[in-house]
């Protein structure tokens, strides 16, 4: 009888160790899922922000009084730019959209490209967004750059 009692006590200790190992594994799995969900949310926000920038560029072409983008193409100005004064309104729209979802837009990079060189009707425009995603929980995980892009054709 004494032998059975000591064997049961050893099993209780084994169960506690197995439970501790299982809980650690499950917590890492849950944290990994949360990080993945937050990174996918960041990608969706950046993709939607790029689409919002393209919509703004489409509506504010050369035919609009408050137009944005290059009005004339020239040999000295490349059609793709990221810091021209003519595209700052598009960059501001993209950053404002991303800011609404509580993302830090100070490290957000927005590149605007007028593929045909001008903002006239039927020309193409593209917006590319790059954002360094910082893991929420950290845990030594690396920073991942989230890239999203959108293109459209100017209609006004």
Report on this model:
The protein is α+β, with helices and mostly antiparallel strands and 156 residues long. It has one domain. The protein contains 2 helices and 4 strands. The chain has helices at residues 2-59, 88-100; strands at 80-81, 109-114, 124-133, 144-153. Mean pLDDT is 83; it is low at 74-79.
What is the gist of this entry?
This protein has 156 residues and is an alpha+beta fold. It has one domain. The protein is built from two helices and four strands.
Number of strands: 4
Q: Beta-strand percentage?
A: 15-25%
- Specify the biggest β-sheet: 4 strands, antiparallel
Shape descriptor: rod-shaped
What is the number of helical segments per DSSP (H or I, 4+ residues)?
2
Distance between the termini: 91 Å
> What is the number of independent domains?
1
CA radius of gyration: 26 Å
Mean pLDDT: 83
Helix content: 40-55%
Judged by helices, strands and strand pairing, the structural class is alpha+beta
Order of helices and strands: HEHEEE
Keyword list:
156 residues, alpha+beta, 4-stranded antiparallel sheet, 4 strands, 46% helix
How would the blueprint of this fold be written?
Layout: H1 2-59, E1 80-81, H2 88-100, E2 109-114, E3 124-133, E4 144-153
Antiparallel strand pairs: 1-2, 2-3, 3-4
């Amino acid at each position: 009888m004494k032998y059975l009692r000591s064997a049961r006590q050893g099993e209780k200790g084994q169960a506690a160790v197995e439970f501790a190992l299982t809980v650690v594994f499950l917590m890492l799995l849950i944290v990994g899922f949360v990080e993945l969900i937050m990174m996918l949310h960041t990608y969706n926000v950046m993709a939607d922000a790029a689409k919002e920038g393209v919509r703004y560029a489409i509506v504010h072409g050369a035919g609009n009084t408050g137009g944005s983008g290059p009005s004339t193409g020239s040999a000295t100005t490349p059609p793709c730019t990221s810091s021209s004064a003519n595209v700052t309104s598009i960059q501001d729209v993209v950053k404002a959209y991303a800011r609404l979802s509580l993302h830090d837009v100070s490290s957000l990079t927005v590149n605007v490209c007028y593929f045909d060189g001008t903002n006239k009707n039927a020309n193409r425009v593209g917006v590319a967004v790059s954002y360094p995603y910082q893991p929420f929980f950290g845990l030594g995980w690396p920073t991942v750059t989230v890239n999203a892009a959108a293109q459209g054709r100017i209609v006004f």
